[in-house]
Amino acid sequence: MITFMNSDSEEEVCNERTSLMSTESPPARSYHEGICTEERDKEIQEKRRGSPCHHGDADQCTPDSRGSTRSSSLEEEEEEEELTLKYGAKHVIMLFVPVTLCMVVVVATIKSVRFYTEKNGQLIYTPFTEDTPSIGQRLLNSVLNTLIMISVIVVMTIFLVVLYKYRCYKFIHGWLILSSLMLLFLFTYIYLGEVLKTYNVAMDYPTLFLVIWNFGAVGMICIHWKGPLVLQQAYLIMISALMALVFIKYLPEWSAWVILGAISVYDLVAVLCPKGPLRMLVETAQERNEPIFPALIYSSAMVWTVGMAKVDSPTKGALPKDQEQEDDWSDTSGDHSYSETYDSPRCTPLHVPSYAVEELEEEEERGVKLGLGDFIFYSVLVGKAAATASGDWNTTLACFVAILIVSGETAEGTQIQPSPEPSLLTQPWGVFHSASFIFVAGERRLRGISELGPSGLSHTQKEFPW
Amino acid sequence: MTAAVFFGCTCIAFGPALALYVFTIASDPLRIIFLIAGAFFWLVSLLLSSLIWFVAVTISSTKNESVQRGLLIFGVLCSVIIQEVFRFAYYRLLKKANKGLMTISQEETAPISIRQLAYVSGLGFGIMSGVFSLVNILSDSLGPGIVGIHGDPPQFFLASGISRGVSLNSFPELYFPLIFSVSRPFFWSLFILSTCWLFLWFFYFPLYQFT
Predict the structure, then answer these.
(1) How far is CA A315 from CA A145, A236, A334, A456, B148, in A?
(2) Largest CB tally within 10 Å, which of A321, A401, A424, A448?
(3) Is residue B32 a contact partner of residue B127, using CB atoms and an 8 Å limit?
(4) How confident is the model at residue A261 (pLDDT cuts 50, 70, 90)?
């Protein structure tokens, strides 16, 4: 189902470019030639700009653009506003679904496959062990591990920004391809091996080779070139889950929590500081008016109209997590930093035949994009809670709900204020808030609930029968 | 225990809630969001009450059985009170949010009415509370073992499913918020509600002991 739509892809590039520009300047142009739905979308977008106008976002909307929209379709306004709100909620739900799926895959694997909860060494990025006699020593080691990890991440990010500034696109593309090759082939092979071991299923090498070859090859094509949207989304979710599983396995417990916290803080810093690497990346991309990388971004729709609420997470925080594993992941750092810029190679892999666009309802024409780092970050959070909670599902569920709330917060924040800065602002806060909540919740609740709830009474009774 | 027990228990406990979800909430994304937000608020209230209980236990660090039991009861009381407080806080938050939503949408009718909000958030509270009390038992039911081998009632799972099930737990959660939204003499109804709730809890407590 791969189609060759070069002309369409060029249109996509055009649209992306114009939609990029639209987010910076007051939207007073039409981007598509005479497609009335696009006009409506533009109006909707202007109205959405219009609604935050009273928050004082002066550079985002001009009075005349507002006036023009008002004059254009008054009778549709109410409907549009209602739709706007519904779109906002719908986008949040569109985010919930992949995040939930990824977390479900990770938790299911953690609970069933023993391999990912066994301690089998650590990454070279976390050299200090946590098997120390005293708590103070353990804490110190985990903090040191975190420092090393975060510095690796910072170095990689700066390297990436430098590469981008000096237009070494080929290098970045090669890096990205190498990283997805490794994920799709090597990690899948390991994962499949462990799952087969767990369920005691035998598979011969030729079959294995066939399965993995097909999986990997189709994955590469879907992610880096063109493919059906659902397949693409499925692959992105799978590779995020694989990555998260690797982190859950190889990060020692305390280090994992400290790293998660530190990443949220780093996210805040990198995105808000004027000299922060992410901010520079975003600004450079916006100056050049071009999309950044063939990104690893999850997108939930085929068509991006008019810079509609792009929920590109400036989750730099999550990226570092990717980077540390191998060098090949630093590309993802870029993905999350920008908000509206999007690359043309990203458009092309999407299968956008014209009939599909008409098929889609208006509500689904606009999509949301979320960086894969977010998926990985959330999945590591939930996976760690599931892995360390000694069979307790309550902590896992609590983390799950908290993460949904956080991603909802982020999505809503970006919906309401479409300019880059607020989304950059919301995401780190959301992540920080969730990480701290989950950490506190995990520890306290684990003890509190098992004793406190009514189940606690019977739990203690139940212990004895077996 | 077999898969039949697992699925049966799950369906008994979560069937009505799932039906409510599928038929009324799943179609509207805004309602889903409020459902999750309701669940989250319940979680936060539970966190607070467990913190209080934990502090109380560590302060009175005795191994005395009756003291522990007393503390547990105190903890339950606390948790009920905190749940009610949080429900009230959530109600206020929702009222504000509704106003905010109406401002953004710039139309006369709100996208979601306060009654719907009450229903959805009550369901969220109830689902979360039911899930939290039941999910560990469900996961145990998938593992090996025989129920009642030491003289405990063999209908443990069935009884848990029914008593802890979301239908029973969320019944108060669901319908009392509705009363909230409807009744004007607000604090008076709150008082009545809290006493009903406390009464229910004390009534159920010995029941839980048997299950």
Answers:
(1) 21, 17, 10, 39, 51
(2) A424
(3) no
(4) confident
Total domains in the fold of chain A? 1
The yes-or-no verdict on residue A370 having pLDDT over 60 is yes
Q: Specify if A134 maps to a domain.
A: yes
Q: Is A444 exposed, middle or buried (0-12, 13-18, 19+ CB in 10 A)?
A: middle
Which of A78, A392, A465 lies closest to B150 in CB terms?
A: A465
Amino acid of residue A425 = L
Residue A107, sorted as left (phi over 0), alpha (psi -120 to 50) or beta, turns out to be: alpha
Helix (H) or strand (E) holding A297: strand A297-299
- DSSP reduced 3-state for A412: helix
Q: Chain B residues with CB inside 8 Å of A397's CB? A: 131-132, 135
How does DSSP assign B186-201, residue by residue?
Answer: HHHHHHHHHHHHHHHH
Tell me, yes or no, whether A415 lies in a domain: yes
* Greatest distance between any 2 Cα atoms in chain A: 75
Asked if A306 contacts A30 with a C-beta cutoff of 8 angstroms, the reply is no
CB atoms under 10 Å from CB of A426, counted, come to 23
- pLDDT band of residue B108 (cuts 50, 70, 90) is low
Nearest neighbour of B51 by CB, restricted to A81, A444, A458? A444
Residue-wise pLDDT tens digits, A97-120: 899 999 999 999 998 888 888 877
| Amino acid letter for position A119 | K
In a mutational test of the A interface, the residue from B46, B112, B204, B207 whose CB has the highest number of chain A CBs within 10 Å is B46
DSSP A111-130: HH-GGGGS-----TT--S-S
Q: Are A143 and A314 in contact (CB under 8 A)?
A: no
User: Is residue A235 assigned to a domain?
Assistant: yes
d(CA A370, CA A364): 16
Q: A–B: how many Cβ contacts below 8 A?
A: 139
| Helix residue ranges per DSSP H, A126-252 | 135-165, 169-181, 188-199, 205-224, 229-250
Contact residues for B104 (Cβ-Cβ < 8 A; gap 6+): A51, A81, A84, A85, A416
Task: Among A92, A444, A457, select the one facing B33 at the smallest CB separation.
Answer: A92
Dump pLDDT digits (tens) for A154-213.
898 888 888 888 888 888 888 888 988 998 899 999 999 999 999 999 999 999 999 999
First and final CA of chain A: distance in angstroms?
A: 54
**Cβ proximity of A330 and A389 under 8 Å:** no
CA distances from A354 to A3, A63, A302, A357, B114 (A): 12, 35, 11, 5, 42
Is A352 domain-assigned? no
Alpha-carbon distance of A338 to A345, in angstroms, equals: 16
How far, in Å, CA of B39 to CA of B193, rounded? 20
What are B18's two structure tokens? 């799932």
Residue B141 — pLDDT band, cuts 50, 70, 90?
confident
Asked if A452 lies within 8 A of B104 by C-beta distance, the reply is no
Count of CB atoms situated within 10 Å of the CB of A439: 18
Output the six-digit token pair for B144.
């090996």
Q: β-strand A297-299 against A369-371: which pairing, if any?
A: antiparallel
**Contact present, A102 and A240 (Cβ < 8 Å):** yes
What does the alpha-carbon distance between residue A134 and residue A361 come to, in Å, rounded to a whole number?
Answer: 60
Enumerate the domain spans of chain B. 1-207
**In angstroms, what separates the C-alpha of A86 from chain B's closest C-alpha?**
7
Domain that holds residue A180: 94-302+368-450
Residue A285, burial from CB neighbour count under 10 angstroms (0-12, 13-18, 19+):
buried
Q: Both tokens of residue B6?
A: 């697992």
